[in-house]
Amino acid sequence: MTITIEPASPDSAPAQRLLQALHTEQIELYGHADPAEAVIAEFTPPHGVFLLAYFEKEPVGCGGIRTFARGVAEVRKMFVRPDQRGSGIGRRILADLEKFAADPELIGAKRIRLETGIRNTSAIGLYDSSGYAAIDSYVPGRTEVNVAREKQIG
């Protein structure tokens, strides 16, 4: 199985297909969702990065990291196509995002945080098994549908 992960623009065609799939899935799970579009400037060095994962040259997953506050990065727009879940792609994207977040030439973060939906048990399992600990919600108005996690990385 050949999986490659590389930086990409969130407005590229492959990224847009994955972000739209993420949006659709969130609508199905919760009845609402953040916009499918990503703010390109937030995912452009030195403020962040957006990654695409490919399986046999087919885009199958994505994720972004952005500066949240001084010394803190935030994971956003993590998604792996349902037919590829359980194959380790999400774990690889997350590990690469952590490296970018800690890189002093990029964000230089000491902590990384994220929020995910309470019904997304696979994502919660990934984050918990990757060393993320539960924290209070940091996005106003989302405590009913989201859980927050944070990890020390530096």
Automatic annotation (TrEMBL):
Domain N-acetyltransferase: 3-154
Pfam families membership: Acetyltransf_1
Domain of life: Bacteria
Keyword annotations from UniProtKB, A to Z: Acyltransferase, Transferase
Transmembrane segments: none
InterPro entries: Acyl_CoA_acyltransferase, Bact_Acetyltransf, GNAT_dom
Any GO MF annotation of the entry: acyltransferase activity, transferring groups other than amino-acyl groups
PANTHER family from the UniProt entry: AMINOALKYLPHOSPHONATE N-ACETYLTRANSFERASE-RELATED (PTHR43877:SF2), AMINOALKYLPHOSPHONATE N-ACETYLTRANSFERASE-RELATED-RELATED (PTHR43877)
Name of the protein this chain belongs to: Acetyltransferase (GNAT) family protein
Organism: Saccharopolyspora spinosa
Origin organism lineage: Bacteria, Bacillati, Actinomycetota, Actinomycetes, Pseudonocardiales
